[in-house]
């Protein structure tokens, strides 16, 4: 089955593209949790330095894309001339294929996350009646370019960050997590890199 897509372009100059991307991904997440849809997310203007001012949603299910494009938030932002939404179009045959991977291991490299994990380990040790003795293990990890997108969780009211990296791939796969991305293990979904 052929894939289709639509794009949302953020119109305000100098807007926080990561914040807007997070809100769009949050809408997709709620949409996919209510329906059994399989929709991937692409960023047509992704560079190593910038996420770009566009987000694209890709799927084999054109009806699901149409329903997603009609979500209240998207329609309101388009009505207020803050978003420009494209029509649903077929994915170009010659578009390079990439995986946009939600890489949760990247978050573990930051001090705030390390502190949170240490506090959790301490609580667990104390609950078992053990003394907590932190271990420091130096880590030489090479990190490729990635982008961070803040997400507001509606289920538990905790905000968190999606760490995303992009990798080229030669195969088309349509399995995404509930945020529309591939993951390091379970989901191998790919999306076209829709450069215009």
TrEMBL record:
Molecular function in Gene Ontology: endonuclease activity
Signal peptide from the UniProt entry: none
InterPro entries per record: CRISPR-assoc_prot_Csy4, CRISPR-Cas6/Csy4_sf
GO biological process: maintenance of CRISPR repeat elements
Gene3D superfamilies for the chain: CRISPR-associated endoribonuclease Cas6/Csy4 (3.30.70.2540)
Any Pfam family hit: Cas_Csy4
Full protein name: CRISPR-associated protein Csy4
